[in-house]
Write a structure and sequence with these properties.
- By secondary structure, this protein is α/β, with parallel strands linked by helices.
- The protein contains nine helices and nine strands.
- It has a seven-stranded mixed β-sheet, sandwiched between helices. Strands 6-7 form a two-stranded antiparallel ribbon.
- α7 links the parallel β2 and β3.
- α8 crosses α9.
- 33% of the residues are buried.
Length: 283
């Protein structure tokens, strides 16, 4: 297959032209947070997706998955929200100093939704490999002076100087459609890098999100090799990360059996999963 044919085939399998109907929450975010008139939203989103696709042809861009905010209603997000809404010095029992980092933040939609729901923006951080995504996000939401912190950097490069800005600042990490992009050894690097983001003395960090998993853990073959997990293999991965970093972690995974993965390169045993990776106190 010629390069042009391969590209067209990829687009055919991962790109949907029309806006999905079920994006009420994202529309509401643009109306309330960014004050975008409802009549202008469709054109804004179509132009935004065009810019994003020109940067990187991810399925989550082509299939409009980045517009899905329904996942922010799950238990992990609700727990993170409760921890984030009680600032230090408040009347809460803990005087929380929690902060959240969204890894692979795309246009920063999750962080803007948290701000809209009442979280102080200075407690929210985002990072993405592509600085263009961060710029496009600021244009989409029209909030260059939002108070949010965004850093473009490479999570696989332990010496990425840009990412050092986040070191020692984080207690909660959201990572959606991220770990499943990498092979086992790359996931170890990413997990090890995450531990450097944690605030000194943190013993109750949580890393959570959703991605593609599988009932039969394996390294996926094809154009982009990556390792897919069930609960047991993900626990083994974080045991390895913990051994290298002097930390301890407990993994919880739930499968969505109702939806089979329809993205190219995945099989019968592959399913969408939600995961929580909970830091345990040192022994």
């Amino acid at each position: 297959m010629s390069p042009e044919s391969a590209l067209e085939n990829w687009k055919r399998l991962t790109y949907i032209d029309e806006l999905p109907e079920d994006i009420v929450l994202f529309r509401k975010l643009l109306e309330d947070y960014s004050k975008v008139p409802p009549s202008e939203i469709d054109e804004l989103l179509l132009n935004t997706r065009k810019k994003l696709w020109e940067v990187a042809m991810y399925p989550c861009i082509g299939r409009w998955s980045f517009l899905n905010l329904r996942n922010m209603h799950d238990d992990h997000f609700l727990t993170a929200f409760e921890r984030l809404k009680n600032p230090a010095g408040s009347s809460s029992a803990s005087g929380s100093t929690d902060t959240l980092l969204d890894i692979g933040c795309c246009v920063g939609q999750v962080l803007r939704k948290l701000v809209r729901d009442g979280i102080e923006p200075t407690r929210l951080f985002g990072t993405d490999l592509h600085p263009e995504f961060i710029t496009i996000g600021a244009e989409l939401f029209n909030d260059a002076e939002s108070g949010l912190t965004f850093v473009a950097g490479d999570m696989l490069n332990p010496e990425d100087t840009a990412l050092k800005e986040l070191d020692g600042k984080i207690t909660l990490v959201h990572a959606a459609n991220f770990f499943h992009l990498f092979k086992w050894e790359e996931q170890v690097k990413v997990g090890t890098r995450i531990t450097r983001f944690l605030q000194p003395g943190t013993v109750d960090a949580v890393i959570f999100g959703r991605q593609i998993g599988t009932h039969k853990p394996r390294e996926r073959e094809g154009r982009m090799k990556s390792f897919l997990h069930n609960e047991e293999s993900l626990q083994k991965l974080w045991d390895e990360i913990g051994s290298e970093t002097g930390t301890r972690w407990r993994v919880d995974v739930s499968f969505n059996e109702e939806r089979q993965v329809n993205t190219p390169g995945f099989g019968e045993e592959d399913r969408y999963i939600r995961f929580g990776i909970y830091q345990l106190p040192p022994q």
